[in-house]
Amino acid sequence: MNQKTPLLLTVVLLLFIFSVGRVCGQIRNFNKDGRQITRLTVAGDAVDAHDGEIAQFNGVYYLYGTSYDCGFEWGNKGAPFCGFKVYSSEDLENWTDRGYLFDSKTQVWQSRCDGKTYGCFRPHVIYNKQHDNYVLWINVYDNVIGYRVFTSRSPVGPFTEVAEPKLTVNSDMPAAGLNNGDHDTFVDDDGTAYLAFTDWRTKGTIVIEKLSADYLTGTGECVKMVTNGATEAPGLLKRNGRYYVLYSDPNCGYCSGTGTSYRTAPNPLGPWSEAHSISSNSCGGQPSFVSTIKINEENIYLYGSDLWNNAAKNEALANYYWAPLEFEADGTIKQLKCAEVYQQTKVNNKKVSRQVNSVKDAYISKAAIDQGTQWAQMFTVRQSGKIRSIDMMVFQNHNPDKDLLISICRVQNEKVVFSDLLFTQTVPTGKIGWSPKKISVLPPLNFEKGSRYALVLHTSATKGYYGILAREAGSRGIGPLMYSKKGNDAFTETGEGVMAINVVQ
After folding, report:
1. Phi–psi pair at 297, nearest 5 degrees
2. d(CA 373, CA 290)
3. What is the number of helices (H) and of strands (E) in the chain?
């Protein structure tokens, strides 16, 4: 990934029709200014699952990924391991947080995966019909082979670790380390499973090995050097009897804007074709997965890339580019368009219109709240009496040394009167994650109908900072979003939407 690649992208609205007459799901990647947006769960928290995949089991979609909410930073030896999360959805739009795949807070897992190691990444789950269980592979760097394997009776876990797998490549290395890397698991139509993975000892070539019948280890049948090197993050799919492997070209840790290339073969073990590029920058990200999902018995090949947030060193704020791959008549994958607005598709040979909604609910992250900067949001009270709660979505970066303060003050002549504080609630740093989550304040005040007030987020932190989610349009009586770099009452409108607050009366 090239960290300097700009996001010169317009809004992408990808709307899937899952059945005729059924409520549509919507996949949205960027806002109208080309900025990546934050996907939220049905509970109002940001989705925090990265470098993983979307899998479909029994008609339900599951997003698996690495969590960064606790503050994991690659290369920071003091950073904790946050674990692997899973979210479920029936429409690829409304996601429910299903928790962690296993307990990552134990001393064993912290020693294996925290900042003192290279970390643990890339959770991939496949279903084994013969054994009626789900198999999880993750990439680690605390053992020689580079992977650990788990099983569960449920796609959401909890998963239990089994014996370390054995693979043909790099099994004889003298020590743990950068041996094998990013991987993908793939189950063929006949139930045979394969592992595609990155061989770091050959400087990033792709290897594909057939797995055992229980999917827990390799068989020794493999093809090496599928690529020529400087590649990673493979993703396997099968379409019309032809196999495809997509991958990042070149390889680069946590970079945004690497290319996506692919090769084809008549068999997962080859022979594989020459490379074909479908994007020079993966729509601003790094390739993460390609998933085969069914919509009305039609296979859709969903491509995903991670839009890393390397500049802020907070990958909990990183989002995703998701889009269906498109193919030419001869099976060639078309170039990723990134900015296309999809208008229609065919479902069961019927043409179905795609509705393109507005982007008023597109959420983007805003920062920073620190000793020198405060953020404020005006709102109008709709009726006299108490407010049950004011909800907002906040996050932290790099462990602020002071707590976050959320205050309510008066507004006079459309100006925030910060000196006239009516209420302040303290939110301890330890209660705020690196991934945006909903925070509620409960002001014990009587408000006057039609009066204007301001919600102000501030802190005295000199180390680290806090941030908020904003959206491009507010509900009635909400707005505008303002900030102050001088303190006191000197607030300036940002012109960039409103703080994502919800006033509940």
Report:
1. 70, 5
2. 41
3. 1, 37
| C-alpha span between 25 and 22 (Å, rounded) | 9
CA atoms of 226 and 205, how far apart (whole Å): 7
404 and 393 in contact (C-beta within 8 Å)? no
With H, G, I as helix, E, B as strand and everything else as coil, classify residue 109.
Answer: helix
Distances (CA, A) of 157 to 93, 98, 103, 133: 22, 9, 11, 10
- Show the low-confidence residues of the chain (pLDDT under 50): 1-24, 341-360
Query: For residues 451 and 428, what is the distance between their CA atoms, to the nearest angstrom?
Result: 30
For 104-223, strand residue ranges (E) read 121-128, 133-139, 147-152, 160-161, 180-187, 193-199, 205-211, 218-223
Sheet strand arrangement including 84-89: 50-57, 60-66, 84-89, 96-100
Residue (of 196, 162, 315) closest to 253 by Cα position: 315
Q: Which residues contact 73 (CB under 8 A, 6 or more apart)?
A: 79, 115, 313, 315
Give the whole-angstrom CA distance, residue 425 versus residue 171: 55
Q: Which of 16, 83, 89 is nearest to 56 (CA)?
A: 89
- C-alpha distances (whole Å) from 219 to each of 85, 162, 193, 209 are 29, 17, 10, 7
Kindly state the helix (H) or strand (E) to which residue 112 belongs, with its residue range. Answer: helix 107-113
CB 179 within 8 A of CB 188: no
CA distance 456 to 409: 8
Domains, the chain, with CATH or none? 12-353 (2.115.10.20), 363-504 (2.60.120)
- Residues in the chain, how many? 505
Task: Count other Cβ atoms within 10 Å, centred on residue 463.
Answer: 11
Residue 67, CA distances (Å) to 86, 159, 394, 431 in order: 9, 16, 17, 16
What DSSP character marks residue 463?
A: S
Q: What is the secondary structure of 365-400 as a DSSP string?
A: EEEEEBTTBEEEEEEE-SSSEE--EEEEEEEEES--
**Residue 61: its pLDDT value, please?**
96
Rounded CA gap, 30 and 36, in Å? 4
pTM score > 0.85 for this model? yes
Beta strands 498-499 and 465-471: pairing type?
Answer: antiparallel
Question: Beta strands 147-152 and 133-139: pairing type?
Answer: antiparallel
Cα–Cα dist 166/221, whole Å: 12
Q: What Rg, from alpha-carbon coordinates, does the chain have?
A: 24
What is the model's pLDDT at position 475? 57
